[in-house]
Task: structure prediction
Amino acid sequence: MIDHLNSILITIIVLGTQHYLSTRNNPYLGGILPAGYIIFISFFFTKLVSGYDKFSSFFMIIAGLTIFLGIWASGREKLKKKRQKELDRIELENL
Result:
């Protein structure tokens, strides 16, 4: 029970960190965790795929990368909308 709770807590912290880094001004900060994930997977790829179920291993690799990149893209879009909203507000004040 505690192991599952720890896994869920770690997942929430990692995804929260990814969201936070993705919404910063520097777009490369949001790429840290996806790049780290790719490096981690490349080192442990043979252990993951050598198991009995290769399809689920490939699925988990692709799903994890898709989630990280999706959060990154979402964060960049959110930042872009926030900047545009601020520019519109400043433009309105200048009139």
